[in-house]
Amino acid sequence: MADYDVPEIPEDIETPSLEPGTMGHLAPYPSVEKHMKPLGFPAAKVDNWQEEGIEKLGSMLEKYKSLQVFLDICVKCGACADKCHYYLGTKDPNNMPVARADLLRQVYRRYYTAAGKFAPGLVGAKDFDQETLDKWFTYYHQCSQCRRCSVFCPYGIDTAEITMAAREIMDAIGVGHKYTTEIVAKVHEVGNNLGIPKPALKGTLEFLEEDILETTGHDVRLPLDVEGADVLLVPPSADFFSEPHIMSLMGYAKVFHQAGISYTISSVASEAANFGMFIGSFEQKQKIAKRIAEQAQDLKVKRLVVGECGHAWRVAYSFWNTLNGPFDYLDPRYPAPQHICEFTHDLYQQGALTFDKEANDEYTVTMHDSCNVARASRMGPNPGGQFEIPRALIRATCNKYVEMDPETIREKTFCCGGGGGLLTDELMDLRIKGALPRVTALKRVMDQDGVNFLALICAICKAQFTKVLPMYGIPMDTVGGVHQLVSNAIQLGAKKGII
Amino acid sequence: MLTLLAYAVLGIFFIGFGRRLWIYSQAPAPLLIPTTPAPVTRLGVMGRLFREVVFFESLFKGDKLAWIASYLFHGALAVVLIRHIRYFVDPLPALFAHFQIFGILAGLAMVGGLGLLFLRRLVIDRVRYISSPSDYLVLLLLIGIGVTGLAMTFLFRPDIVTIKEVMTNLFSFSSLSLPLFSFGDALFILHLSLVGLLLVIFPFSKLMHMGGIFFSPTRNQVDNPREVRHVNPWDGQK
Question: Is B92 on the interface with A (CB under 8 A)?
């Protein structure tokens, strides 16, 4: 492992003074032909990239109200400046949301506003030149699209929208990001982000069934491609692959088993994640989402349930209905789609599940709200259900639960540092520093309250924290899913089926 | 001449402002992107926008100093504008006749708020970094308007009777012209010119935040994607 500069964990989250250029060196690996072509992007940087990029920006202004309004109305008040985990962790001024957005706004002003055409210096307009493009590639890949800045902006300017737009423009001129384009290409080819083919998936599920039978004595099924099941379960593919993700998958399976609801996983739609969002492309988002809707129809299921994955839940909850056409083939009595936490919580409230809290007595738990769930979606009928429902599940399955600093949870939650398509090793330095605010709040409850379990509902958070927390001296097994706690506490066979 | 100029300035302002709002209203919103937790009803969204516009709710959460300074400025500006009705309406409704003292205090508060915003921009390294010359100049322009206004009240009084006569007849192509006999009269001409300049740059600047906020998708959308299907207008499928 390379040597990384891991910051000291401070007592409290501090707003640093600016240190220009600290992260200027850290651009991600550029994409190559093999990953760009399948997505319909130019194989390499096109010759007339300046013209094309400027033109693309113009066409996007006519397609996205968010972009047009956000580029116009920022007053540079700076309320967002100290809200970004990447700025707090890196001190690089280009990681202040307003400065990040300005990298695009400068170009917008130069070519699409009167002031920028006639007096660029006055209004901070800049040419779309190589230097600007380099900055775009660097700093638009240092934003995890977490939307924390949009909570505090007096006009709701959402830097995620700006970042997505900039990435879409760069893709259109052949300047792509390897990690995200490679993954999208893999989804189209194999069906999931990790490239797990059907035989391997089948093997994994069978192994898990045996494992659960051995440890619990109950024949809990993890069915694959079963036509006519009631529910299509769409987890993030990491749930099939690695710890601690897989523990949550076992949790989902036990819930279905105990409630007596038939379900299936699909080998074609074996991935809830939708990296189309990270590269900003509506078309890719739609293409990736469609294969799930098509599987739901092919397998003739009545309900769609999404596993523990943050941005996937945003896409599923907020976008699927738009992207996939009406869900008129699903059972209208249930929300379409449903989050696994909503699903389990409903069953628990109906009395279909029994939990033994003592099974989790070794843990003192705290909850990290994932950004896309917290600030871009909902669970249940009421605003804020995305905070209450996972917490209700934790409280139902654990005796010891504490909250972190209220400035760092719920809609003010800090990103894990690995979201938005940045969960790649070449950005490790950024990921470590971006995790600092969350680590600071976590460390405090670990020291004060003996917290030893960080409950998550996002595959990216899980992958990021298992890698980064140990660098801060926090054990890897502190990290786990909400359904891991469910899995530990659920009483199999005690009561079966919905009352 | 003065009438022509007034028409030109107001024309640029209203047509420019209206054009921007038209662009904002016509730009499609392909996906639902409210910053959540968000209201789940249209009425709730109206409440959210009301709180943003009247109380600067999000800014209050984000930056207390910026909130105090900008609230002082915007609130005081509203009072000052109401007070200015007396210069355009004849006869003046009784309600406004007793408004003088509030208006003058508000004038002071307005310049104070602007001064705070200016200082904050200079002193806080983060805000200084993101400031363009135009960000300072807009503040200076507003301060100029406030200071010339206050100076006419406290230092050099212009010929207010003639000025009011000119202003109430501004749009009727009368042959009246502004008085220029005293230092106060000159101040008034400066005050009026700065206001004209402000109106002219308004549609081309960040001042569009005044209208733009109502079109911000993260604030004006209802959080109901599962209940009501949102259709992307430029998506091929229906």
Answer: no
Distance from CA of B5 to the nearest CA of A (A): 21
Minimal Cβ distance to B33: which of A62, A161, A326:
A161
- Answer with the one of A183, A216, A241 that is the final residue of a domain: A183
Interface of B with A in 69-88 (CB under 8 A): 70
Residue with tokens 């384009």: A181
Note whether A229 and A144 are same-domain residues: no
* Domain assignment of residue A480, yes or no: yes
In a domain, A445, yes or no: no
B209 contact A CB<8A: yes
Residue A427 burial (C-beta neighbours within 10 Å; 0-12, 13-18, 19+): buried
Whole-structure pTM value: 0.94
The answer to whether residue A294 sits within a structural domain is: yes
Q: Is the CB of A157 less than 8 angstroms away from the CB of B226?
A: no
Question: Is A376 a residue whose pLDDT tops 80?
Answer: yes
pLDDT in tens, B113-159: 999 999 999 999 999 999 999 999 999 999 999 999 999 988 998 88
CATH code for position A105: 1.10.1060
Q: Is B16 on the interface with A (CB under 8 A)?
A: no
Return contacts of B171-178, CB within 8 angstroms, 24+ apart. B171/B3, B171/B6, B171/B7, B172/B3, B173/B3, B174/B3, B176/B2, B177/B1, B177/B2, B178/B2
Structure tokens belonging to residue B151: 């100076």
Determine whether the interchain pair A63/B234 forms a contact, defined as Cβ–Cβ distance below 8 Å: yes
- pLDDT tens digits, residue range A155-196? 999 999 999 999 999 999 999 999 999 999 988 888 777 778
Q: Are residues A151 and A297 in the same domain?
A: no
Q: Which residue has the tokens 């249209």?
A: B42
- Considering only the beta carbons, identify the residue of B27, B29, B37 that sits closest to A411: B37
Residues of the domain holding A334: 185-402+451-489
Option in A82, A96, A383 nearest B40 (CB): A383
**Do A90 and A237 sit in the same domain of this protein?**
no
∠ Cα B111 B112 B116 (to 5°): 115
State whether A475 and A331 are in the same domain.
yes
Residue A22 lies in a domain: no
Whether B63 sits inside 8 A of A79 (CB atoms) is yes
H or E stretch covering A297 = helix A282-298
* Chain-chain contact of A81 with B126 (C-beta, under 8 angstroms): yes
Domain range list for chain B: 52-131, 142-209
Residues A149 and A267 in one domain: no
Helix, strand, coil percent values for chain B (each to nearest 5): 70, 0, 30
Mean pLDDT value across residues A305-312: 97
Q: Is residue B96 pLDDT above 80, yes or no?
A: no
CB pair distance less than 8 Å for B218 and A158: yes
Q: Name the minimum distance, in Å, from the CA of A406 to any CA of chain B.
A: 13
Q: Which candidate from A70, A151, A154 shows the least CB-CB separation from B56?
A: A154
Last residue of some domain: A166, A183, A200?
A183
